[in-house]
Amino acid sequence: MTISASAIARTYELDGVSVPALRGVSLTIDAGDYVAIVGPSGSGKSTLMHLLGALDRPTSGQLVIGGRDVASLSPPEMARLRNETIGFVFQSFHLLPRTSAVDNVALPLVYRGLGARQRRARAAAMLERVGLGHRLQHRPNQLSGGEQQRVAIARALVTDPEVLLADEPTGNLDTVTGAAVLALLEELNAESQVALVLVTHDRDVAARAHRQIVMRDGVIV
Ligand SMILES: Nc1ncnc2c1ncn2[C@@H]1O[C@H](COP(=O)(O)OP(=O)(O)OP(=O)(O)O)[C@@H](O)[C@H]1O
Ligand SMILES: [Mg+2]
Asked: Which residues form the ABC transporter domain (predicted)?
């Protein structure tokens, strides 16, 4: 699957003030790509990721995801496109607070027509792969920050996405756990052509990507 952005911009309206977070970005993500997005805080990285993940629409410019122009999609169509093709790891995780780790990870599979038992089994297997097989029944507030991050990564991967968009996926992980998570993502990239787009403040992580995109003040520099 290809994601193609042409001069996309995103302006937030906040209390009557326009905040131009993204000011014309063009880029293409193809199957098998491995891209790191870097840049200072507030430069528009998360805004760009939300657009690439069909979580939001550009204010102007054209965004085509898997051959479909997001401007032509209704909200349910965007939700379906996301569920079928995209895994998204939010900078702030967005886990359901009163729900166990295994049920958080199983949630995106509800739309796949799998029974509860199968969903749990797949979720448990994915949590195993991120090193959390011993924490299936813990709720997010019973998990460390790094463990919550790995639950969020498992939830993004459980649907076998074609593209994984991850906003600071190793930001809360120690060196060893971060390297293990990155190795898992790189294995999926190399063996299954899952496109990886990672936002990171870590130079070593960015250097592993095949391509680096540097953002500043809402544009690619
Ligand atoms: N919902 C919103 N409403 C208004 N302004 C917003 C909103 N979301 C982001 N912004 C502003 O848009 C700019 C870009 O924000 P964004 O979250 O994309 O930055 P970032 O590069 O991800 O930063 P960080 O490295 O701190 O995560 C910032 O100035 C931010 O304050
Ligand atoms: Mg951000």
From this structure: 3-221
Tell me the pTM. 0.95
Cα–Cα dist 79/126, whole Å: 22
Q: How many CA atoms lie within 13 A of 127 on its CB side?
A: 23
Tell me the ligand closest to 90's alpha carbon.
2
User: What is the Å distance from ligand 1's center to 92 Cα?
Assistant: 13
- Domain total of the chain: 1
Q: Which element (helix H / strand E) includes 23?
A: strand 17-29
Question: Distance from the CA of 189 to the center of ligand 1, in angstroms?
Answer: 28
Residue ranges with CB less than 5 Å from ion ligand 2: 45-46, 91
Can you read off the two tokens belonging to residue 182? Answer: 């990155």
CATH number for position 13:
3.40.50.300
Instruction: Render pLDDT for 190-201 as a digit per residue (tens, 0 to 9).
Output: 999 999 999 999
